Structures are given as structure tokens and as C-alpha cells.
Amino acid sequence: MSTRPTKQLEIVPNPHPDRKYMVEIESPEFTALCPKTGQPDFATITIKYIPGPSIVELKSLKLYLWSFRDEGHFHEDVTNIILNDLVSALKPRYMQVIGKFNVRGGIYTTVTAEYGEQ
Amino acid sequence: MSTRPTKQLEIVPNPHPDRKYMVEIESPEFTALCPKTGQPDFATITIKYIPGPSIVELKSLKLYLWSFRDEGHFHEDVTNIILNDLVSALKPRYMQVIGKFNVRGGIYTTVTAEYGEQ
Amino acid sequence: MSTRPTKQLEIVPNPHPDRKYMVEIESPEFTALCPKTGQPDFATITIKYIPGPSIVELKSLKLYLWSFRDEGHFHEDVTNIILNDLVSALKPRYMQVIGKFNVRGGIYTTVTAEYGEQ
Amino acid sequence: MSTRPTKQLEIVPNPHPDRKYMVEIESPEFTALCPKTGQPDFATITIKYIPGPSIVELKSLKLYLWSFRDEGHFHEDVTNIILNDLVSALKPRYMQVIGKFNVRGGIYTTVTAEYGEQ
Amino acid sequence: MSTRPTKQLEIVPNPHPDRKYMVEIESPEFTALCPKTGQPDFATITIKYIPGPSIVELKSLKLYLWSFRDEGHFHEDVTNIILNDLVSALKPRYMQVIGKFNVRGGIYTTVTAEYGEQ
Amino acid sequence: MSTRPTKQLEIVPNPHPDRKYMVEIESPEFTALCPKTGQPDFATITIKYIPGPSIVELKSLKLYLWSFRDEGHFHEDVTNIILNDLVSALKPRYMQVIGKFNVRGGIYTTVTAEYGEQ
Amino acid sequence: MSTRPTKQLEIVPNPHPDRKYMVEIESPEFTALCPKTGQPDFATITIKYIPGPSIVELKSLKLYLWSFRDEGHFHEDVTNIILNDLVSALKPRYMQVIGKFNVRGGIYTTVTAEYGEQ
Amino acid sequence: MSTRPTKQLEIVPNPHPDRKYMVEIESPEFTALCPKTGQPDFATITIKYIPGPSIVELKSLKLYLWSFRDEGHFHEDVTNIILNDLVSALKPRYMQVIGKFNVRGGIYTTVTAEYGEQ
Amino acid sequence: MSTRPTKQLEIVPNPHPDRKYMVEIESPEFTALCPKTGQPDFATITIKYIPGPSIVELKSLKLYLWSFRDEGHFHEDVTNIILNDLVSALKPRYMQVIGKFNVRGGIYTTVTAEYGEQ
Amino acid sequence: MSTRPTKQLEIVPNPHPDRKYMVEIESPEFTALCPKTGQPDFATITIKYIPGPSIVELKSLKLYLWSFRDEGHFHEDVTNIILNDLVSALKPRYMQVIGKFNVRGGIYTTVTAEYGEQ
């Protein structure tokens, strides 16, 4: 599991805890650094989840995603780290995180990781 | 269940009650207020349902969706409230409500809630 | 079942009756009248079917769809009527009719009805 | 000229007053009421201008556009009112306002008004 | 000039008669009959005009366009007739009418006629 | 000038000869043979013209375009031939013919020829 | 089964016969004649198959599809004939042929026929 | 199995080996030669895989795909060769390779090959 | 004029100095901070120029654009600063810089500044 | 002027030398090497010209564009070289060459060079 502090993520109680419903959140403004070259990477992060007891507070999620801005991360790793952090904070029934990274060297990379079952 | 008055929703008898068929209604003109800041939120609301004894009268549905214009609602909550109100009024075999909210703070949110089975 | 005369629909023998294959026909030029206001409604009608003994002759289908031009019909009803008429005339193994109606009052409506199993 | 109070519009000094450059601002979240029926209208408002001594502060522009939410306005009129108000506040070299209104009764309306020369 | 009665077209005073501004109106729901075969034709009619003393009332324009529903007209002719009728009623500074007709026999036809100068 | 028989092209009197208006006709179903290899070529032919005394009858235009089906023509040549034939038959004020040919050997070719001034 | 000569279709050995993989081939340049009117029809033909012992040589497939150019065929029939001919020649594990025909009389037709199981 | 040297492919340990997650890599810049004519072919190669013990290092993958630039390969063969080479190097739980080749002779070809189960 | 150090911008001699030709460079990965809130802003920067004695070296341009990552800038200002810096370094015949900023508070902003004449 | 041998370019006489008409040719399959790194670059080359005495033979143009495959060229230079070579061979009235290069380091580059006047 990730060791990054997740103190930025705030949660609020799920207003409809008895129903299995899906929340999809998309942020096209994710940026981190390449751990090899130090150059900026850019991605669209999509988070889909079926809430358990809590839903994520959107402003804190925005701050959480911004916290990667000056950190170095590989594509495959950072997508899984975001999934781990959000699962720890939200205890969802199901969650999927998709990291769609901008082209580098003529190659487009997308990483999709899941927790639980839909 | 929601406590909003649903008196605006009028129903008419299903003209083909013996067949399982799907009605999909999309309104790109939903607006409510943010309960935190009081600022307007905008969304496209999509309603898919397999009618039971009744179908919804479209003009009354339009008025029902307009009734949120001056109310404060969180994204996850209002999508489920619309589902609850329509299920109460229509007794459908199946219903799905999708709220696709305009970007706020660089984040797009979509909430999908269902009742019954397709 | 519908009581509209279906004499316009001509059928021809299925040239490959032993194979389950799909025919999809789309007409973006359907128009009828609103039974409440008398104003014109417009729709795209899509018909998908797995033929049984017969296939529909396309010119007669065009005339059949034109025959609604001066009639008043609700969206949910007319989609099912078209399905009933075509099932009566063609005896298909499976048929789906989709009526995608133009926006009215800021609301888009699509009705999907099926006969048999795919 | 319009008599609506324009106190919401705040201006800041143009940081490059010696250069003729273009600023384009688009808000897809404009809503007002129909003065005939009282029903909500929706539009995308686009503002293009070559600044004079001032540029508009974006948050105050957002509040200005929100101030129409509960007012009744005809399409042709409100587009010209927005132009008049912004010209009064900003004294631009050139300004164009485009109001692209959602479909009503099967008809889409766009109004384009200009001040000065490009 | 056309001899069709234009009594359906209602006008209202131009609220900003001193400014040259453009109004664009698009109706994708125009239908008439082919004068040769009697079969329905479909078109999108776009009207752009710089108002003179009057603007067109939208509901009366909708009724005016519907009045062609049972009449036979050639593509080139009906586009010019609409231009003539609107120029007679509105006395605009400039007007353009575009009729974009649905494909017939594998051929798409668009007719563009203008009055005055932009 | 071309020596192909143009007897297929029928003309009808221009119903609005006093106005300069534009007619645009698009046929995505043009096919001829490559004069080098005998293999089929495919193109979309677009014809724009300001009519003089006559307009083209659409069915005869369709037959005219079909008449190239079994003939060998180079891209640059056939586009000019169509322009020459239509100018001869219609005496337009202005005409433009665009031949947009399907990709061959990884290369897309479009030829645009004009007669008169717009 | 079809009686058209299939001598144009050449096959080559499947280079990876032990793996179930899919080949999809799309030709937007199919043309035949309408058996009723003699007028040209146009279609996009898509062929998907899981090869058995052989794969189709592409140039011979191109010639095979061209061989329909002067023949009269109904939409439903010709799609099945192409499937039959290719199954005879290739002995695939699975094959699907889709014929997507250009609009005629305002109606779009698509025929999908399959052989074997995916 | 392929006999091409795969020494260009470098692997790095999977940072989340306990989770089944999907990596999708797309390169629109693949080019090889036609083994018949020696002329260049172009394709978009898409690789989707669920990593096993290793993930592919992206720069080495880019070099690997470039290594085909001067080699002659049939479409069906080269897609399977890429799959074989990557499976050998990465030992994934699942892998799919899609080769979408540019149009040749009016025909588009796409080859999809898989290893393991999703 | 801007006082930011422009040492990152490297230039190379224009290989065709006698011809007026246009170079267009687009970077969808520009990010800076909002000078009011400190929150990240994102933009696509497009630079079009007719070279004078020099052209810009692309890697140094990339580094130059990255240098704004931790700085606070208003939209209108930063677009003009980039134009000033590039004009200083390159002495172009003509240059245009377009900053297309991501939506904030439901408002999209685009700034276009030019130097010289096209 | 360029010193590359242009012997691949074959010309044929312009079949309509008295008319100013435009030929547009687009090849999305251009590839060369980066002169700095030796890595492949990819581009779409578009050539528009008004023919003088000659038009280009398309197969020889294809071979000419392929001849850059193993050469190192900068974006700005190679676009001008292609223009120079084609002007030398064809003596056109007007010619424009556009090189639209694939993204490198998050930056898209397009170079547009012209000869003569349109």
C-alpha cells in the first residue's frame, strides 16, 4: 500500500447508503513529474466508484490530485497509488481508477486499476 | 425517501402495459444551486425506464425538473432524489437516472442511480 | 394490437431463410402530429429485425411510414404501433423498433420496443 | 441603453494597453426567463473584445451573468443589453457578444451584436 | 414575388433599431411535398438577418414554416419564396435564407439566397 | 472543350432569374475507371453554381454522373470535363466543380475548377 | 448457396493457425446495380473472420468485390452471397459480413450475416 | 514462435504485482515494408495487457517497434509476431495486440490477436 | 516588456531566410498558477510565426514553456509575456500567440496577441 | 534551392492548361529521420497547386515522398525542400506545401510554405 499522506482527502457521509449507485469523477488536469527525466507528465484521471459509508468531498479531491504536481511517479504506479489512497479513505463497495497519459515518444499509455466488484 | 412535494408529476396510463419497452428522456437544461456556495450548478439529466402501469406526462416532468432551480442540492443527493420521486409517481418496472454535472474546479462529475432490474 | 390498415406493407420471400441474419433500416424522415396540440412532431425511426419467412419491400415501408404524416400519436404509442404492424406483416424471428423524437420543451425522448429474442 | 445596475462588473487595468489583442470569454451556463411564459431559457454567451484601458475581472463577470437568472428577457434584447453593459464598464476598442439560445419549438436562435471595429 | 398569403408572420418592433446586429434562426423541421411525385421532402431552413424596424415573432415564424407542409415546391423555388415573404414582412437591412435538403437519389442539394448587403 | 455527348442533361427555367443565388449539389456516389489500370475510382462530386437562365433537372444530373461509370478518366481531366459540360448546358453566371477522390497508394486527391466569378 | 464463380478469391496459408485471432477488412467502395431499376447501389462491406487453415489474399478480395459492379442484387441477398462465397473459399472458424448501403428514398439499410461462433 | 531478436525489449518489475490491472499502449507510428512490393506499410499498433511479474519499459518498446521499419511483413503475421515477442519478454497474465493498417487498394485491414484470458 | 529571464530560448538560423513561410507550434501542456488563489491553471499555447533570421529550437521552447509551472500569472498577461519573449529572441517577421485556458467557474477564456503583420 | 536528385518526379501535360484550377494532394504517410537523434519522424504532407504546363504523375510523387524515409531533415527545412523540388519539376502558377508533424515532447509543429500567388 502507498505511504503518501492522504490527509487532504475529506469524506462526507453517503446520503443514500442503502442504494448501489455509481459516481464518476473526471479530472483532465493531473500533472506529475517523470521519475527518470524530471520532466512534467500530464494525464486525465477518471475515478468511478460505488460508495460505501462515505463519498469524497470534491474540493479535497482536487487538492489531493494537485499534491502530485512536484512528485516523480511512473504511470503504472501512480494510477494504483491513487486507487489505494481512495480505497483507504472511502471504503467503497467498488472503485476503478483510469490514468490516461499524454503521448510521449509517439506512444499513448492508459492504466486501469480496480478494487472490489461492480 | 425524499420529502420534496411531487405534486408536479402527472402520469398517464401506459398504452402498451403488456410489453417491456424502454423510454429514455434527456433534459440538458437542469439547474440547481450549490448548497455550500449558493452558486448555480448545471447538469444534463437522463431518465431511462421500463414503464409499469403509467408513463410520465412530459410537460409535468419539465415543470418537475424546473422546480429544483432555486434549491440547494449536492450532486450525489439530487440524482437519487429524482429517482425516488419518479419511482414513487410511476411505479416503473425499472428506472435509471443519470446526472451529468458541468465541470467545477476542473472536475466533471456524473452520478448514476438505478431502481429495479432491466 | 393496432387497428391501422397495414395494407401498404408489402413483403417478399426471405432469400436466405435458413440463416439468422440481421436487417437494420433507419428512416430519419418520420413525421406525425402531436395529439394534444396538433403541431408536427419529427423522429428518426430505426427498425432492426431477424427475418422469418419474409423481408419487407423497402418502397412499401417508406409509404407505410409516410402514412403517419397527418395522424396524431403519442411517442410511446406510435413506436409500439409500428412494431405491432411490422410483426403482423413480417412474422420475424426478432424485431426492435426505436423512435428517437426531436426535442420538445428542452426534452429529448427515445422509445425502444422489442418483439421476440435476439 | 440598458438601465440594469452594472455594479457587479469589476474591472482591472489592462496589463498590455499598447497592444491590440483579443480576449474571448465563453460561458455555456447563461439562463434567464422567457418574458412571455415565465419558463427558463438557456444560452451560451460568448464575449470577444479588444481591451481598452481595462479588462474584466472574471469572477465579477460570472456574477454579472448570473444576475439574469430570475429576469425575463427576449433573445434579441438581452444580447444587446449585455453588450451595452460591458461597453459601459470596459470602454473596449472593439467588442462582440454572441447569444446562442437552446432550441424552442424546433427553432434555434443565435444573436450577434458588435461595438466598434476589429 | 410570391403570392402565398403571409398573414401568419407577426412582427414586433426591433428593441435596438440603431445597431446593425445579426439574428440567425435555424429550423431542422421543414417539410414540403415534391411537386413532381407528391412525396415528402425534408430540409433544414436557416435564416440570417440584420433587422430593420422589426424582428420576427418566433412562434409565428414556426407556424409560417409549417404552412408549407402540404404544398408542392421545388428546392430552388421554395428557398427564394421564403426569402421574399420574410423580406416583405420584416423590411430587414440584410437577409440570407439557406435551404439544406435531405438526400434524394444519392444527391444532396443546398440553396442559398440573399437580400441586401451585409 | 469536352466531346462527350451531354444529351442526358436536362434543364428547366430558373424560377428566380433576377436574383443571384447559389445552388450546391453534392453526389458522394461518383465512380469511373482508372485509364491506366482499368480499376474503379470513386469520388464525391460537388457542384456549386449561380444560375443564369436555367437550373439543372436533378434526375438528369444523376444520370449524367452515372454515365462515367464505365469510362476511363484522369482525376484532373474528369473534373474539368464535368465543369465544361455543365457550363455548356446551363450557361450559369458562376460555377465551381470539386472532385474529391478516394485514397489511392496512400494519397488523397481533390481537384477544384471554376467558371466565371462569384 | 451462391452459384457465382468464386475463382477470383485466392487464399494463402494461415501463418498462425494455432491461435484464434480476428481479421477485419473494410471496403467502402462496393457498388452493384439495383435489380429492379438498374440504377447503381453503393455500400461499405465489412468482413470479420477468425481464420481456419487459410487467410484471403487482399488483391484477389478486391477483385472479387469489384466483380459485382455490373450485376443486379438485392441488399439482403448480396450480403449473404458474399458470406457464402468467402466461407466456401476460406473455411474460417467464424465469419461476419456487414453490408451498409447508401441511403435510398430516405432509408438507410444495413445487413449483418454470420457463420459459425466467435 | 517468432525468431526475431527481442533484445530491445527491456522489462522492469511490476510495482503492484498482486493486483490484476490493465495497461494499454498505443503507437500510431508503426511502419514496415510490404513483403510483395517492398513499398512501405503504416499502422497503429495497440497493446493491452494485464501485467504478470514485469511491465515493459516504454523507451525500449518504442525501439522494438522501430526495428520493423526495414523489414517485410504481412499484416496478419506481424501482429502475431509482436504478440509472441511481448508475451515471451513480459510473461503477462493476458495480452491483446491490435494492428490497424492504413488503407491499400481501397481496403482497410485490422488484425486482433490475444494471449491468455482477461 | 517582460522581465523574465529568456535564457532558455535557443535559436538556430532560418534555413530558408528568403521565403515568407509560416511555422505553427502547439503545446497542450502549459500550466502556471493563479496569482490570486495559488491554484494551478492549464492552457494550450499556440505559436504561429513567419521566421526572420532565426527559428526556435523546439527542446528549448519546451523548457521555456515549462518555466512557468511554479509562477503566478493572469491569462491576459502571460499570453502577452510569451509573445514578448519570443519576439525578443527570434526577431520574426510576424508572430501570433494564442492562450486557450481551461474552464474556471463555468467560463472559458482565450487570449490572442500578435506582433507585426502577416 | 535543394540539391536532392528529383529524378523520381514524373510530369504529364496539363489537360486543361487554359484554366486556373487547383489540385490538392494529401499524403498522411510521410516519414523521415530526426537529424539530431536519428529517430523516425512522421508527418502528413499536403500539396496544393495551380498547374502550369504540367501536372505531377501520382505514382512518381508517391515514390518521391518515400525517398525521404532514410534521410535526416529538420521540419522547417524539409517542407521547403519539397516545395522547391516540386516547383522545379512542375513550373506551377502557384503552389503551397504543408508539413504537419506528429507530436514530439508534447509539441505539435506545422510548417506552411508557398510559391507564387493564388
Automatic annotation (TrEMBL), chains A, B, C, D, E, F, G, H, I, J:
Pfam families reported in the protein's UniProt record: QueF
Recorded coiled-coil stretches: none
Matching InterPro entries: GTP-CH-I_C/QueF (IPR043133), NADPH_dep_7-cyano-7-deazaG_red (IPR050084), QueF (IPR029500), QueF_type1 (IPR016856)
The protein, known as: NADPH-dependent 7-cyano-7-deazaguanine reductase
General function of this protein: Catalyzes the NADPH-dependent reduction of 7-cyano-7-deazaguanine (preQ0) to 7-aminomethyl-7-deazaguanine (preQ1).
Biological source species: Effusibacillus dendaii
Catalytic EC class: oxidoreductase
Active-site positions on this chain: C34 (thioimide intermediate), D41 (proton donor)
Catalytic activity: 7-aminomethyl-7-carbaguanine + 2 NADP(+) = 7-cyano-7-carbaguanine + 2 NADPH + 3 H(+)
GO molecular function: preQ1 synthase activity
Domain of life: Bacteria
A Gene Ontology term for the protein's cellular component: cytoplasm
Annotated pathway: tRNA modification; tRNA-queuosine biosynthesis
EC number, as in UniProt: 1.7.1.13
Gene (UniProt): queF
Record keywords, A-Z: Cytoplasm, NADP, Oxidoreductase, Queuosine biosynthesis
Upper taxonomic lineage: Bacteria, Bacillati, Bacillota, Bacilli, Bacillales
Protein family according to the UniProt entry: Belongs to the GTP cyclohydrolase I family. QueF type 1 subfamily.
PANTHER family registered for this protein in UniProt: NADPH-DEPENDENT 7-CYANO-7-DEAZAGUANINE REDUCTASE
Any GO BP annotation: tRNA queuosine(34) biosynthetic process
Compartments, as annotated in UniProt: Cytoplasm
Amino acids binding substrate: V56, E57, L58, H75, E76
